[in-house]
Amino acid sequence: MWNVLLSFSGLVALIQLLFLPFFPESPPYLLLQKEDKAGCLKAMKQLWGEGNYHTEFDDLMKEKSITKGTKIMNVLEVLRERSVYPQLCTMLLLLLSLQLCGLKIFQTANLQESIIPYVSLGVSISELISIIFCSSIIDRFGRRMLLCGGYLLMALILVLLETSLLLSDQFLWLRYCSVVLIFLFIIAYGIGP
């Protein structure tokens, strides 16, 4: 039944694609990039119902005046911009390592095949927890604190994970600790970086 489980995310994406044309554009996008004031107010009314949105509109107008001289770059322009190469390389390496390390860790931990579906479910639940938790604390602590703390926590978890994988042949219970550490790593990644 794995094919059904994997196709479920495709079904959700298809539903989103079908209903997306019926939703209005983002009001900031309409005002800041398209310069469509009437469309912006119309989108606000569609999204939030009837009401007076002059305060929100004025905030968007202030943002527009601040960013008036700023050039909006597309993806190719960002990739050509040398000043963002360190950040792009860091993100690329991090994302690649996340994609490649999961399979190797589960193989190294020698988990029973009957447990692997539950581990996959646990990974998804960890991602959900991190999304919910991050969205509730980001305004309180700020992005910089979450980034620094997240990277430090991830580094500590990776050290513990490597240790548990090295000792998993001697202590069988460390295999399960490895799985818990993977969940914690995903949560730390989702909350921080």
Description:
It comes from Dicrurus megarhynchus. The chain is mostly helical and 193 residues long. 77% of the residues lie in helices and 0% in strands. The protein contains nine helices and no strands. Helix 2 runs antiparallel to helix 3 (37-48) and helix 7 (116-141) packs parallel to helix 9. The model has no long low-confidence stretch (mean pLDDT 77).
Q: How big a fraction of the residues is strand?
A: under 5%
- Structural class category: mainly alpha
Mean pLDDT: 77
Estimate the helix proportion, in percent: over 70%
The number of domains: 2
Radius of gyration: 22 Å
Number of alpha- plus pi-helical segments: 9
How many strands, what sense, and barrel or not for the largest sheet?
Answer: none
Got a strand count?
0
State the order of secondary-structure elements, H for helix, E for strand. Answer: HHHHHHHHH
- What low-confidence regions span 5 or more consecutive residues with pLDDT below 50? none
Give the end-to-end Cα distance, rounded to a whole number of Å: 33 Å
What form results from the Cα inertia axes? elongated
